[in-house]
Amino acid sequence: MDRIGIIELHSKGRISLKARAPFRFNKDGLIEKKLRPGYLQLVKENIINRPHSSTFQRTFEMYVSEKLYNQMKEDLGQYIEKYSHLARIEAEIDDKGKTFPVTGLLFLKELDGWGNYIRSLK
Question: 36, 81, 116, 121: least CB-packed within 10 angstroms?
Fold first, then answer.
């Protein structure tokens, strides 16, 4: 990532990010494949295992049709894109350092979570 200008390596193993957030990698690209496992572990440790008072967390399970499921994915994707766009605009005009990093992780999957959990207890 240093070679392609995403990060800058410093002494004592320190790394600084050269790209301005928010950004994303190609979901089928090499960086995504190499970094995703470690990133997911970091998110799990810092968001799920150690939630902070500012953490926004919602757990849900519902039964939906394929049509509604696809609509949910589309709508949620649009909301994420909307706020990513607004964050880019805000970062460009932020001259007092008032912005802070926010990490989110949203999974939607056909899964009987509670059912599987209850069955695992038997």
Answer: 121
Query: Using an 8 Å Cβ cutoff, are 91 and 20 in contact?
Result: yes
Predicted TM-score (pTM) of this structure: 0.57
Taking the C-alpha atoms of residue 46 and residue 101, their distance in angstroms, rounded to an integer, is 13
Distance CA 93, CA 84 (A): 15
Hunting for tokens 């440790």 — which residue is that?
45
- Quickly count: other Cβ atoms within 10 Å of residue 22's Cβ: 16
Largest CA distance in the chain: 57
Please count the CA atoms within 13 angstroms of the CA of 92 that sit on its side-chain side.
Answer: 6
Summarize pLDDT for 54-103 with one digit per residue, the tens.
777 777 888 999 999 999 999 999 999 899 888 888 877 876 677 777 87
CA distance 73 to 77: 6
